[in-house]
Amino acid sequence: MSKYNITFADIGTTVNVSRGTRIVEVAEKVGASIPFGCKENDCGDCMIEVLIGAENLSKPSPLEIELLKEKLAKPSNRLACQAMVLGDVTVKPA
Amino acid sequence: MTQPVWLSERVQWIGAFDPGMRSFDIILKTPNGTTYNAYAVRGSEGVAVIDTVKAECAEQFFAHLEAVARYDEIKVIILNHLEPDHTGALPELMRRAPQAKLYISQSAQLMLKALLNRKDLDFTAVITGDTVSLGDRTLRFLHTPYLHWPDTQCTYLEEEFILFSGDVFGCHFCDKRLYNDKVGDFRFAFEYYYTHIMRPFREHVINALALIEPLTINIIAPTHGPILRDQPTRYIERYRELSAQRLQNEINAEEKTLIVFYISAYGSTTQMAEMIREGAEQVPGVRVSLYDMEGGDTDLFVDLVEDADGILVGSPTINGDAVKPAWDLLSSFAKINVRGKLAGAFGSYGWSGEAVRMLEDRLRGLKMRLPLEGVRIKLIPSLEELEQCRQYGLEAAEHLMGVNAPRVLEMADLLAARKQTTEELSVVTI
Ligand SMILES: [Fe+2]
Ligand SMILES: [Fe+2]
């Protein structure tokens, strides 16, 4: 299976993961400072800012878009519990 | 039947008394019940209803409402908080006043849909600065999320300087005299409510105070307990004191604090804690403190944890588990916000060292961040093992200060480490 690098810019940690891994799973394992709550697109706590490689994440679902809007998110924001790694990407907490 | 209470010529309390309530949301106790405060505001062009009551108390609410307004006069329904103790009577109110427009916080939309289970719902989502006019009365909204739910907001009646604050500044206290200058001494209830409901959301309290403090306020009208009309700003000042970073004056902005809690049966975990301190103190800007859990009380520790940047917990493994003082400490963390603080665990063991991994799982469950796998040492620490502790303290402090060397990890290794722990555990439980 193809592998990609996800970098958590704020903690200087890069993790090599399989395609389709959800960001929140990695963040929790390496102790990234991305907060997380429900992990199922409900609370919006795990908002991140995508610094590089937004196009390398899975597209947001209509529900994620709705929740991001409600949380007054910027265009570069995603939910770590929803976004799956499909290429190299660099993120930090929103 | 009780009567509505007039806060002014245009503003009435139309809530409900619930003197029989003894425990609220399971975790809160109240010795004399609570009130669900709802309010009606009359303008030259219609009436606004601000919040409702718990479903079981709907009868009192509707009787009070009917004494001050007709249903067809209600133009606006404002929901400062969607928890069922304030929205129980909402569906019936919407049936009786179908023309009324709903106003909710920007962050309450998905919750409202889930609450009412209606797809065709019509409502206006508002944020700080938005207003709704009732002719000669204007209601202005303050976006104050997470006090204590994501959906919460406050509403300010501009012409009369009344703040409808939702659960903020409220308390579970039932006294039919209703005004803070008439009721019995309710300070204990006010403090208790802050500690149990608002304290975990301290950062959000501070943000809300920044919006509230500049306002001229004659009356604070919360959704529970006394209406604060006598010296209302004293309650705002009290929230400011309670939410303040207590350490702020004693520590400079570039410094961070790391607390090492430990408990030891034969001194091994103590030795580990001391070496961890030695390592952590090699990193400039880290202020390390060591506390033996045997000599303290979790109520005092939790105050320290609230203001600390990082927490390490050391416990030996006894009977396949961490010891009770360690678990007591961790369970007290639910009273405050520990999310995102750096955390870790360490400890010595006799023949199976499950405690460290169990504590780590719980710390992760509390949404703390654990960048390092904790050190476990069998029986008496050797010199190499003590060196391992020093290194662990050093690296933890580097992560705390954000000066750790960049690292590249393999997800497969991270997963394998966890799996191995689970296997070890299952072997032990056989
Ligand atoms: Fe509430
Ligand atoms: Fe409430």
Can you give a write-up of this model?
- The complex is a heterodimer of chains A (94) and B (430).
- Chain A has a single domain (3-93), classed as Beta-grasp domain (Ubiquitin-like (UB roll), Roll), CATH 3.10.20.
- Helix content of chain A is 18%, strand content 28%.
- Chain A is built from two helices and five strands.
- A five-stranded mixed β-sheet of chain A has the order 2-1-5-3-4, covered by helices on one side.
- Chain B is built from 13 helices and 22 strands.
- In chain B, β1 and β2 form a beta hairpin.
- Helices cover 34% and strands 22% of the residues of chain B.
- Chains A and B meet through β2, α1 and α2 of A and β22 and α13 of B.
- The structure holds fe (ii) ion (2 copies).
This entry's quaternary arrangement is: heterodimer
Query: What radius of gyration of chain A results from the CA coordinates?
Result: 12 Å
> How many domains comprise the coordinates of chain B?
2
Tell me the name of the CATH class of chain A.
Alpha Beta
* Span of the ends, CA to CA of chain B: 64 Å
List the total number of helices of chain A.
2
* Helix content range of chain B: 25-40%
Number of domains of chain A: 1
State the low-pLDDT regions of chain A, or none.
none
CATH topology of chain A: Ubiquitin-like (UB roll)
Count of extended strands of chain A: 5
Please give the radius of gyration of chain B in angstroms.
Answer: 26 Å
Fourth-level CATH superfamily of the largest domain in chain B: Ribonuclease Z/Hydroxyacylglutathione hydrolase-like
Spatial order of strands in the largest sheet of chain A: 2-1-5-3-4
- Range of strand content of chain B: 15-25%
Arithmetic mean pLDDT of chain B = 93
Given the structure, what is the number of helices of chain B?
Answer: 13
Q: What is the strand tally of chain B?
A: 22
Mean pLDDT of chain A: 91
CATH superfamily of chain A: Beta-grasp domain
